[in-house]
Design brief:
The protein is of the alpha+beta class and about 500 residues long. The protein has 15 helices and 12 strands. Helix 4 runs parallel beside helix 7 and helix 14 packs antiparallel against helix 15. The longest helix has 23 residues.
Length: about 500
């Protein structure tokens, strides 16, 4: 394990032409203090967890001191926001401190969010607020524990600094990590300014750094797009399977490596509602739960257009046409596992659809239902079961349950083995927005960060019973049900 000063930096992005970034140092926070630290994320860069106890840790991650070997810069990108191209984006409140290579030669971008103004800040102040950093810290780690690709969160640094949003809030910084922070919008930036040589240069860079197996391939550019399609399709299928709604799937919030990035007005769907939209700014539901697969494909089309100077449109279309099959196959496989099937069968599609149709009519809690379903006994004619009893109108769900039991018996399902398998894929604990809100209120109003650490602990092990935390597994109270979240951070 290493001290902060011993981290092994390798700043490859800095070697690209200056048009790709703005060299800028973080703006120090006033009176910084440590809010929370994630030793699991720290281990990814070989960081000794004892470093978080030292005063210098706060200095380094509040912008007051520069980590030796780092070379901070703000990345340039543009993107389509709510379907409209915006040429004025870029890292307006975040700075890439550099890239750290660990002992097994994995490269992690070290990205400081809330680090002050950059060339791309425009009218914004370049700060993040404590509220938004807590939400991103908790959700990125919760998503990771669910087995979904994502950025990781190392720490949050709080301060006394006041930041104006809808109201006056407290400024903070969060250190997040990813294999890359290159986005679909990174390619769009050079495509829409008619700089195809930079599109090619960026593509070569991404392949060399993140997809080295493609580097010597004759069709490497097409294969990169194909890989982006594949990874994105599987990512969205995983989101859908756990009821996660990102909330703002602009092309600048889509990672070229197919990971979840830029947590803002997200939400885990509670009552099953395909039109669920956690972002209070999304008045027309563009980024609703049900629209995520179609929006992902729309965004991939914009990526393909941005790569048009190096991939012929007809060839790119071949890659894009694979999205629906990849997504559908992955989604059905995931849902089949949620239902406890040993293998996915063609007939499962109809069974899954019937169930979801019933759930949307009854507004049943998505996470709780699937967790309870594991207790159903397949060879028992009695349908008075916990999961079935969640429905007011029993006729539809009882008919479905009878079909479900027949499907289980057809593959000689063992109830004990099935329950064990279902509980490995159906989480008991998710980050319901009211839980995050409780942690935020304690932190903001009382400077009490204990709830952040407790939630982090619970959400690190979402599939286990953790009976001592049973209250965190229930439905949201009335005040916290389907909270609408602001984009503002």
């Amino acid at each position: 394990m290493r001290k902060i000063e011993e981290l092994k930096f390798d700043n490859t992005y800095r070697k690209l032409p200056e048009e790709f970034y703005h060299l800028v140092k973080p703006t120090p926070l006033k009176n910084p203090h440590l809010v929370c630290f994630n030793s699991d994320a720290g281990s990814l860069i070989d960081l000794d967890p004892n470093e978080a106890k030292k005063p210098d840790f706060i200095e380094y991650f509040s912008g007051n001191k520069l980590i030796p070997g780092s070379d901070p810069l703000a990345m340039y990108y543009t993107g389509h926001q709510f379907g409209v191209y915006n040429p004025d984006i870029g890292d307006g409140r975040a700075i890439l401190l550099g890239e750290v290579r660990n002992s097994v030669d994995e490269k992690w971008d070290i990205h400081l969010k809330g680090s002050g103004r950059t060339r791309y800040s425009r009218i914004f102040d370049g700060r993040a607020v404590l509220r938004s950093t807590i939400r991103e810290y908790l959700c990125s780690e919760a998503i990771h524990a669910l087995g979904i690709p994502t950025t990781r969160a190392l720490c949050i640094i709080g301060s006394d600094e006041k930041v104006e949003r809808e109201t006056t809030e407290t400024g903070a910084m969060m250190l997040r990590m990813a294999e890359t922070h290159v986005r679909f919008g990174s390619f769009e930036a050079f495509h829409y300014t008619d700089r195809p040589h930079y599109v090619k240069l960026l593509t070569d860079y991404v392949i060399e750094q993140n997809f080295p197996a493609l580097f010597k391939e004759e069709n490497k550019y097409y294969m990169l797009l194909e890989e982006a399609v594949n990874r994105t399709a599987k990512l969205i299928a995983k989101w859908q399977s756990v009821g996660f709604t990102h909330g703002v799937m602009n092309t600048d919030n889509m990672s070229i490596s197919g990971i979840t990035i830029d947590y803002g007005p997200y939400g885990f769907m509670e009552e099953y509602e395909p039109e669920y939209t956690p972002n209070h700014s999304d008045h027309f539901g563009r980024y609703s739960f049900q629209n995520q697969p179609a929006i992902a494909l729309w965004n991939l089309n914009k990526l393909a257009q941005a790569l048009g100077s190096i991939i012929p449109r007809e060839r790119a279309q071949d890659a894009l046409e694979g999205f629906k099959n990849i997504y559908s196959q992955c989604f059905v496989e995931l849902m089949s596992k949620k239902l406890g099937f040993k293998t996915a069968r063609a007939e499962d599609v109809g069974l899954i659809k019937r169930l979801l149709d019933i759930m949307v009519t009854e507004k049943v809690d998505y996470t709780i239902f699937f967790r309870k379903l594991s207790n159903l006994i397949s060879d028992n004619a009695d349908l008075n079961h916990d999961a079935v009893c969640m429905f007011e109108d029993k006729s539809g769900i009882e008919d479905w349950a009878a079909s479900y039991k027949r499907r289980l018996r057809a593959e000689n399902s063992d109830d004990i083995e099935r329950k064990r398998g279902m509980n490995l894929v159906n989480p008991k604990y998710i980050l319901r927005n009211y839980l995050a809100e409780n942690a935020i209120r304690k932190a903001v109003n009382e400077a009490d960060y204990s709830e952040i650490n407790l939630l982090h602990k619970i959400l690190q092990d979402p599939f286990s019973e953790q009976s001592e935390f049973e209250e965190y597994a229930g439905p949201s109270p009335d005040w916290g049900r389907n909270l609408a979240i602001s984009c503002s951070s």
